[in-house]
Amino acid sequence: MTQQTVYAHVDGPLGEMLLVGRVAEGGAGVTELASLSLPGQKGAATVQDGWRRAPEAFEEITAQLAEYFAGRRDRFDISYAAGGTDFQRRVWRALEDIPYGSTVSYGDIARRVGSSGAGVRAVGTAIGRNPLLVVRPCHRVVGADGSLRGYAAGLERKERLLGLEGAHV
């Protein structure tokens, strides 16, 4: 079965999000979310030739995002496209285990994926390449001293997401 890449722009409290996903030919909804980007994000996805604009394909994901931003959802039930290297996927899976409203340090993530010491920098790089902002909660990772560090879409947005979740930083 062949898949087609589709996209939609969705308004949200952090700005207009770009959602990119894959649908089975003739399918109605996204089978895998490949990217969720925010305006001004470093490394953000951009619409490519051959992609089809299909806001209707993102109805379920859009509904879950609206619930999250309204404080009625603390976890997403979305299928993600694999993407990334094996190391990045391990780091990204570790992000998904951080509870709503909590924070952990980059060092904590490094230990969880078996990459301590100098590996903290590699973990930070992998987190910075997370293509699924908000739904894969890289905003929950902070410096060892609890300070806000690094967020591809800007520290102000990271702070807003953590505030929405009631996380104390």
UniProtKB/TrEMBL annotation:
Enzyme Commission identifier(s): 2.1.1.63
Subcellular location, principal: cytoplasm
Subcellular location: Cytoplasm
Entry keyword set: Cytoplasm, DNA damage, DNA repair, Methyltransferase, Transferase
Catalytic site positions: C138 (nucleophile)
Coiled coil: none
Residue ranges occupied by any Methylated-DNA-[protein]-cysteine S-methyltransferase DNA binding domain in the UniProt entry: 86-167
Matches recorded under SUPFAM superfamilies: Methylated DNA-protein cysteine methyltransferase domain (SSF53155), Methylated DNA-protein cysteine methyltransferase, C-terminal domain (SSF46767)
One Gene Ontology molecular-function label: methylated-DNA-[protein]-cysteine S-methyltransferase activity
Segments traversing the membrane: none
Any Pfam family hit: DNA_binding_1
Catalytic activity: a 4-O-methyl-thymidine in DNA + L-cysteinyl-[protein] = a thymidine in DNA + S-methyl-L-cysteinyl-[protein]; a 6-O-methyl-2'-deoxyguanosine in DNA + L-cysteinyl-[protein] = S-methyl-L-cysteinyl-[protein] + a 2'-deoxyguanosine in DNA
Family: Belongs to the MGMT family.
Physiological role: Involved in the cellular defense against the biological effects of O6-methylguanine (O6-MeG) and O4-methylthymine (O4-MeT) in DNA. Repairs the methylated nucleobase in DNA by stoichiometrically transferring the methyl group to a cysteine residue in the enzyme. This is a suicide reaction: the enzyme is irreversibly inactivated.
Additional remarks: This enzyme catalyzes only one turnover and therefore is not strictly catalytic. According to one definition, an enzyme is a biocatalyst that acts repeatedly and over many reaction cycles.
Protein name (record): Methylated-DNA--protein-cysteine methyltransferase
Organism: Streptomyces lateritius
